[in-house]
Amino acid sequence: MDMSTKPDRFAVVIDDESIILAGMEIMLDTWGYQVLAAEDVETVLGKLPGRPVPDVILSDYRLRDGWSGISAIRAVREACGSAVPAIILTGDTGPELIATAKAEQVRILHKPVQPNDLRRHIDAVIAQPG
């Protein structure tokens, strides 16, 4: 399976754990993505103007300052004016999260996620017709 990506793909990553954020940024960069990575939603929203619409949003579920991955994805989508494909990475398996994610058309991946699995899921959500 050819898993190559175009070097012009753009990903937004939100995770309040700096080590995870750094690892995701490096991994996506090696896959040919431009990456906007931040520990909080406000930083992402402040850095989005002037950038292209992201190809994908990756977010942790539990974020700082009362944000959830769902609310973060909503905010980024609203700022972009587009239903950007999105994935939440979480250890949470609650039925409310799963129902909300389904309603918001957000894919849930349960931690830990192997890099090849993550890449396959990113490629799949990007390929889905909007």
Automatic annotation (TrEMBL):
Chain ranges of the Response regulatory domain: 10-126
> What PROSITE patterns does the annotation carry?
RESPONSE_REGULATORY (PS50110)
What's the domain of life for this entry? Answer: Bacteria
Sorted UniProt keywords? Phosphoprotein
Task: List the residue ranges forming a coiled coil, or say none.
Answer: none
Q: Which residues carry this modification: 4-aspartylphosphate?
A: D60
Q: Which InterPro entries match?
A: Bact_response_regulator (IPR050595), CheY-like_superfamily (IPR011006), Sig_transdc_resp-reg_receiver (IPR001789)
Q: Which Pfam families does the annotation name?
A: Response_reg
| GO term, biological process aspect, one | phosphorelay signal transduction system
What protein am I looking at? Regulator
Organism of this sequence: Azospirillum thiophilum
Upper classification of the source organism reads:
Bacteria, Pseudomonadati, Pseudomonadota, Alphaproteobacteria, Rhodospirillales
